[in-house]
Design brief:
Layout lengths: L1 H11 L7 E3 L3 H14 L6 E5 L4 H14 L2 E5 L6
Length: 81
Amino acid sequence: MRPLRALDDLIRQGKVRYIGTNTFAAWQLVEALWRQRSLGSTGLSANTAVQSARPQDRAWLLPFCRTYGVGVIPWAPIAED
């Protein structure tokens, strides 16, 4: 929980604008958002995701991010599986 508090402090000080994750699994995103909300800190703004991932992996990501207001930053859109 300390890293979340540290990131929140940086946002409140104006040193960081947004917090993002890199290729988190669904359970990791849920846990991160839950912890941030339970601490009353600033939530995640974006998640970097492999857009060439399997369709079943993408099926949860976009609806989840839309529901919780987390942006998606695609990378490797034409990578091989």
